[in-house]
């Protein structure tokens, strides 16, 4: 499967075209919109989220509630566009326009794509960069991820995400009996955190950062249950599924690192405390006695839950601005800020869940018969039987 996205943060809309979903898969705007709403939430979000109520419109590839096998096209309107029609207009700029509309952004913001993007594409107005490099684009990545999640759920594969850490406050070790319970508890939390004590401390850390004109980052975790064993491959670098998940995670704006299972702790422990012993039972087939490696060996799924974490740096736009340089005057300046999120880790957890869902659904569609949803369901069930009896 593949998808492309288009659209600027303050342009009229965001668009995605998804190719490769099997025909006959049920898909509605309503289920996509649930995930779009989840992505908008979270303590620490800025004023833009009060303007937007993200809703996807399916404009191709679905008829009477089922995918057709043709590309699925989704659009999400930017409500904020109504305030930006001139600045973001597509017609050539009228020289008579006001100075405000003609004003170029020439001050590069540290931590953003502004300077590198301007340099790469030759833009003297860095709005041409920031409009597209903005994490507003993650809206349609979540829409594409919702379609992928639907496919996975029909195959008995479930995902959940949660916030593990914000601003150095770490949640207690996870303790849950089912992914549904984990989801219920984290959905109810303003920071998408399982641990009520840490939740309060995280919220206080966000408030403190905001008060001080600063921002904070954190760590999100995605857990996947029900993936059949043997998806992915060890035979070539670009077919390793764990590497695709890692790439997807770091492709999220502001994400800087990835861990699976015990992650970087593996560097500090002996092999006997890192590798997972293999066992067999007729009901479960092969399983691992522990899951320290987070569901992957040799670039393939082990059939154990996938546990993958992503690290988000603090939001780069600070009300207490960092020093930078104006590309016209080459003079130093300290930025003035209109609005920004102070922490978007809870929202980014939903983005992480979506991009991981996309990679897993793509791998499944690539590996098994996938023109028809029914055939795909049968193929995945057969893989489970085969692995159990192998
Ligand atoms: C959900 C989400 C919301 C974000 N909101 C903001 C924001 O309001 N202000 C900001 O400066 N950066 C925000 N970012 C981060 C920037 O988009 C990101 O740091 C920037 O595009 C540069 O990319 P890089 O950090 O991956 O190098 C957000 C990121 C995510 C995932
Ligand atoms: C719009 C979203 O996030 C935006 C991501 C973002 C950035 O620089 O990445 C900057 C802010 O944009 P604005 O300047 O319009 O307020 C955030 O609000 C969104 O998540 O939907």
TrEMBL record:
<dbReference type="GO" id="GO:0004107">
    <property type="term" value="F:chorismate synthase activity"/>
</dbReference>
<comment type="function">
    <text>This reaction introduces a second double bond into the aromatic ring system.</text>
</comment>
<keyword id="KW-0028">Amino-acid biosynthesis</keyword>
<dbReference type="GO" id="GO:0009073">
    <property type="term" value="P:aromatic amino acid family biosynthetic process"/>
</dbReference>
<comment type="pathway">
    <text>Metabolic intermediate biosynthesis; chorismate biosynthesis; chorismate from D-erythrose 4-phosphate and phosphoenolpyruvate: step 7/7.</text>
</comment>
<dbReference type="InterPro" id="IPR000453">
    <property type="entry name" value="Chorismate_synth"/>
</dbReference>
<feature type="binding site">
    <location>
        <begin position="313"/>
        <end position="317"/>
    </location>
    <ligand>
        <name>FMN</name>
    </ligand>
</feature>
<feature type="binding site">
    <location>
        <begin position="253"/>
        <end position="254"/>
    </location>
    <ligand>
        <name>FMN</name>
    </ligand>
</feature>
<keyword id="KW-0057">Aromatic amino acid biosynthesis</keyword>
<keyword id="KW-0288">FMN</keyword>
<feature type="binding site">
    <location>
        <position position="39"/>
    </location>
    <ligand>
        <name>NADP(+)</name>
    </ligand>
</feature>
<dbReference type="GO" id="GO:0010181">
    <property type="term" value="F:FMN binding"/>
</dbReference>
<dbReference type="Pfam" id="PF01264">
    <property type="entry name" value="Chorismate_synt"/>
</dbReference>
<dbReference type="GO" id="GO:0008652">
    <property type="term" value="P:amino acid biosynthetic process"/>
</dbReference>
<keyword id="KW-0521">NADP</keyword>
<keyword id="KW-0285">Flavoprotein</keyword>
<keyword id="KW-0274">FAD</keyword>
<comment type="subunit">
    <text>Homotetramer.</text>
</comment>
<keyword id="KW-0456">Lyase</keyword>
<comment type="similarity">
    <text>Belongs to the chorismate synthase family.</text>
</comment>
<dbReference type="InterPro" id="IPR035904">
    <property type="entry name" value="Chorismate_synth_AroC_sf"/>
</dbReference>
<dbReference type="InterPro" id="IPR020541">
    <property type="entry name" value="Chorismate_synthase_CS"/>
</dbReference>
<feature type="binding site">
    <location>
        <position position="298"/>
    </location>
    <ligand>
        <name>FMN</name>
    </ligand>
</feature>
<dbReference type="GO" id="GO:0005829">
    <property type="term" value="C:cytosol"/>
</dbReference>
<feature type="binding site">
    <location>
        <position position="339"/>
    </location>
    <ligand>
        <name>FMN</name>
    </ligand>
</feature>
<feature type="binding site">
    <location>
        <begin position="132"/>
        <end position="134"/>
    </location>
    <ligand>
        <name>FMN</name>
    </ligand>
</feature>
<feature type="binding site">
    <location>
        <position position="45"/>
    </location>
    <ligand>
        <name>NADP(+)</name>
    </ligand>
</feature>
<dbReference type="GO" id="GO:0009423">
    <property type="term" value="P:chorismate biosynthetic process"/>
</dbReference>
<protein>
    <recommendedName>
        <fullName>Chorismate synthase</fullName>
        <ecNumber>4.2.3.5</ecNumber>
    </recommendedName>
</protein>
